[in-house]
Amino acid sequence: MTISSNISLQPYNTFGIAASARYFSAVRSIQDIQELLHSIEYKNNKHLILGGGSNLLITKNVDALVIKNELKGIELIKETSDHVFVKCAAGEVWHEFVMWCINKNYGGLENLSLIPGCTGASPMQNIGAYGIEIKDTFYEMEAVHAETGELKTFSKTECEFGYRESVFKRKFKNQFIITSVTFQLSKHPVFHIEYGAIKQELDAMQISELNIQDISQAVINIRSSKLPDPKKIGNAGSFFKNPEVSFSVYENLKKEFPNLVAYPLENQNYKLAAGWLIEQSGLKGYRKGDAGVHVLQALVLVNYGNASGNEIYNLSTHVLQTVKDKFGVELEREVNII
Q1: Which own/partner contact pairs does 63-66 have at CB distance under 8 Å and 24+ positions apart?
Q2: How far is residue 49's CA from residue 67's CA, in Å, rounded to a whole number?
Q3: What is the distance between the alpha carbons of residues 138 and 126, in angstroms, rounded to a whole number?
Q4: SS3 99
């Protein structure tokens, strides 16, 4: 474990924002983390935990110790007649972990294929796509307390999962360093193909006998056709959350905008498609300098080359205000702003 100073963070955030960290350390084991907690640099500075840097917008140089989580390893810890319990280290690339599970025919994560980032970030914001969220397969996770160095195990209940939310984004923000996540996956998977364009894509693929490999490939095809590759153009995936509104608000919007895209929720509220709201506000493909709204998916803000974090943040503010002016609906940023 080493600690370096004045390190560029441009390679470590998918927006490709040029910024530097006062201190930087990559940790590859629980022992590395515990050792780091005793360092002068850790005790005398703020700290930022960094995984894949895919849900992050850096707006300034980071006057802190940036801790890059590089813990690796995947293991089957137990199984029953119906389920397997797979433990994945926090630094593993999420999509590679999903592919590992799919290749072994462990079901539950196939709808979450091609989501950028590392496994450790998945429970932090309860990542989700195409009708599935992490909470649906989450079993438990381990994390080191950032002050005591104690390794603690969290159950699903203790994580307090919500829509793109968990206790680690609120009450326990910056208090724990996630080291591993364990998932309960199915040997007899139930297919979820009703959400979005999965069924249409499977029809186009001419699939006769459905399996999780086909669903994963359909999701990959859809995401690849709509979402920009961070290796080619800087972005952090979906920048905004889909807003939840009451039934009465939904009814009023539906009367004024008959083509409104929305999904009913169990609590009688409706979730609106933020991408549709942004597109209908005339912002799809909008660009100011090198900061832009993607031409194929309005949920995604992009860095066309040399945009600063502040320029992208200002663009997001413009999107929020424009949507509010047109629909009276307040969007919320999904990415973490530094």
Answers
A1: 63/22, 64/21, 64/22, 64/23, 65/3, 65/21, 65/22, 65/23, 65/24, 65/25, 65/41, 66/7, 66/9, 66/12, 66/21, 66/23, 66/24, 66/25
A2: 5
A3: 9
A4: helix
**Per-residue tokens: 6:** 């004045």
pLDDT digits (tens, 9 = 90+) for 283-333: 999 999 999 999 999 999 999 999 999 999 999 999 999 999 999 999 999
Q: How many CB atoms lie within 10 A of CB 330?
A: 11
Multiple choice CATH, 74-186, 3.20.20.370, 3.30.465.10, 3.30.70.260, 3.20.20.60 = 3.30.465.10
Residues 96 and 150: their CA atoms lie apart, in Å, by 29
Task: Give the residue numbers annotated as catalytic, written as ranges.
Answer: 164, 238, 334
- H-type alpha helices, the chain: 30-37, 40-43, 94-103, 156-159, 198-204, 212-226, 247-256, 274-280, 309-327
Query: Position 322: which residue type?
Result: T
Evaluate whether 23 touches 65 at the Cβ level (below 8 Å): yes
256 contact partners, CB below 8 Å, separation of at least 6? none
The two three-digit tokens of residue 108, written as one number: 């539950």
Question: Per CATH, the architecture of 4-69 is what?
Answer: 2-Layer Sandwich (3.30)
pLDDT digit string, tens, across residues 263-277? 898 888 999 999 999
Per-residue confidence band for 196, with pLDDT thresholds at 50, 70 and 90: low
**Domain spans of the chain, in order of start:** 4-69, 74-186, 234-337
pTM greater than 0.90: no
Q: Contact, 294 vs 301, CB < 8 A?
A: yes
CA-to-CA distance for 200 and 329, rounded, in angstroms? 30
